[in-house]
Amino acid sequence: MKDLVIIDSGGANIASLVYALERLGCAAHLSADPVEIRSAARVILPGVGAAADAMARLRAHGLVDVIPRLTQPLLGICLGMQLLFESSEEGDTRCLGVFPGAVRRFAAAPGRPVPHMGWNSLHAVADVPLLAGIRDGDYAYFVHSFAAPVGEHTLARCAYGADFSAVVGRGNFMATQFHPERSAAAGARILANFLGLS
Amino acid sequence: MRDGQVVKGVRFRDHRVVGDIIELAGRYSAEGADELVFYDITASPEGRSVDRGWISRVARVLDIPFCVAGGIRSVAEAEQVLAAGAEKVSVNSPALETPGLIDELARRFGSQCVVVGIDSQRVDGEWRVHQYTGDPDRAQRSARRTLEWVDEVQSRGAGEIVLNCMNVDGVRQGYDVEQLSAVRERCAVPLIASGGAGQPGHFAEVFRRARVDGALAASVFHSGEIAIPDLKAWLRREHIEVRP
Known about the structure:
- The structure holds 2 protein chains of 2 kinds.
- Chain A has helices at 15-23, 34-39, 51-60, 79-82, 184-196; strands at 4-7, 29-31, 42-45, 74-77, 85-88, 93-94, 99-105, 116-121, 139-144, 146-147, 154-160, 162-170, 173-176.
- The two termini of chain A are 14 Å apart.
- Chain A has one domain (4-196): Rossmann fold (3-Layer(aba) Sandwich).
- By secondary structure, chain A is α/β, with parallel strands linked by helices.
- The relative contact order of chain A is 0.17.
- By secondary structure, chain B is an alpha/beta fold.
- Chain B has a single domain, classed as Alpha-Beta Barrel (TIM Barrel).
- In chain B, strand 9 (160-165), helix 7 (177-186) and strand 10 form a beta-alpha-beta unit.
- The mean pLDDT of chain B is 89.
- At the A-B interface, helix 1, strand 8, strand 9 and helix 5 of A face helix 2 of B.
């Protein structure tokens, strides 16, 4: 059994994620094989790029029905978080449906360019094991043009114009809109918390 | 970066070795730097590309985003840099030679990965772009006006602009607020001020008066003259929002 599998959704730049896990003593294994993914102790769904491309690759690997049925801790990151919702406005894409609702594009405004890129602070941080040690006002590193609204599964918010979901969780499924692997000590803490979940 | 070592010059000349890349990268991220930029200043002038080995060594130790600049002339070269763990690539001289490179990079990787660096100073009363500034023997003024180039790179898909104000670089007398303010008026993407930081007041001034999104500095941090934690604490007391 592989301890941690990063789902290879192709195109994603995962070097910094692999190194961040390495710094925590975890050797991650990259795979698109449903058997390997099902048998992993933990799974990360990363993602950089467009929702439609990523869904097409998951479909090509036969993973669209596999991922929502996983029972081990799974962490979606950035686009990987958005793919866990029902749909994305990006390319009008049907997604995995683990979380209810639709991911929407940010409206650009003067002084608020899209993509939302850079450090921003977390608010209304829930008291859950994934976010142990994370406080309101801690900063995380974001790079995205689409976001999930705040809803019943929101575990932390961030504001860019309106509030959006920075962290969500539902049972064994968790996700961060920001990049924990780029988010200095706060990000490392979240990854370490995730590695400690069973 | 030059030949794998961290160097710093004054007004883009007389570069001296200031330290080991892994040691400096680790120190700055631990001290609270929000992002690091690595310029391979030897790359473009010699018509070669960056040596990639150090990028993954840096990525292994850094838990903040970093950007690599230097002789990235193609989508394939940018891809290698990003795959090695960099968050962004910055293009400068190659974008001046082939402006379509900006469009290609933005299409392939998204604007968020594509930084355009602009070396600029006033010549005969106008701000002009300069190129090959890493090599004093080859540095030259380009035919482009800075403000027009700022418009063009944004329309081609640049996601961020770093404005290196050459006349103030490395001399620690403050950022070129006048030039940065003029560029800010034209710049809808994040704008990073570069060149001239000498004391904490300079950072406060450039954030307040030029409304830049970030301030880049090298000399004052390399020399230890300003410690990043002290600078951030000072900026917070001045009511400028910074990550602690």
